[in-house]
Amino acid sequence: MANHKLLSWNVNGLRAVIKKGFHDLLVEERPDILCLQETKLSDDLVAGFEFEDYPYTYWNCAQKKGYSGTAILCKSEPIAVSYGIGIAQHDKEGRVITAEFADYYLVTVYTPNSQNHDENKRPRRLDYRTKEWDVAFLEYITHLQQSKPVIFCGDLNVAHKEIDLANPKSNRRNAGFTDEERARFDAIMEAGFIDSFRLLHPDTPDRYTWWSYRAGARKRNIGWRIDYFCVSASLLDRIAQVDILDQVIGSDHCPVLLELKS
């Protein structure tokens, strides 16, 4: 039986990336499930999107038009699908979808960006991100894990270790690499979840999933690894492959891949 292939991609606008080879990715990689972040769609637009071989599509759109948003495209129908994490203040931005399958929960997540510095030279949304969102999301996936294993994937907007970005020293206090954000990722690991890429590639440098559009950063591979597949420890023996598809263009992020043994 073939491996079970999952892809995750922050597309930075689905309508834009469809014009830049999105369908080619589906044809070439043929994932069983594709999780998307930052779709930038509103509820009135999603009915116009259909994908051959993916009859089961699920959308969570932000209340604010053209902002955030997540989606899951499936070849097989999940047992159940839910939207958000059950807390109104966190769920208005369309950041989470959970699909339940026979042997695991799959969660796609677009973690809030801590944003640029305020007048106190701290990322503007850092406290919301680390003291509220990160805490609530970890509680959510920990609760799911009590029922069955969890795979969560997406743009987590944090580079965990210095190896996960090209310029760690100059970014120490910037959004995505603050001590506070990295500590919250530590908490995820301590709760029993595994960064699947680092599990298989513990010392591999220069593998990134996001590059600024400025100054030719992608061409020079001046990037950050902020897109992940994290899995419950009980799934470790099923991991067949984890990869970063940095040859795929169309967004400022590239897709990440997880294959599970069937």
Considering the chains and any ligands shown, give keywords for the structure.
262 residues; alpha+beta; Deoxyribonuclease I, Chain A; six-stranded mixed β-sheet
Number of strand elements: 14
List the total number of helices.
Answer: 6
**Mean pLDDT, nearest integer?**
96
Query: Mind telling me which CATH architecture this is?
Result: 4-Layer Sandwich
CATH topology: Deoxyribonuclease I, Chain A
List SSEs in N-to-C order: EHHEEEEHEEHEHEHEEEEE
Helical percent range? 10-25%
* Cα-based radius of gyration, to the nearest Å: 17 Å
The proportion of residues in beta strands is: 25-35%
Categorize the overall geometry. globular
Low-confidence parts:
none
Distance between the termini: 7 Å
What is the number of domains? 1
Brief characterization of the structure:
By secondary structure, the protein is an alpha+beta fold. It is built from 6 helices and 14 strands.
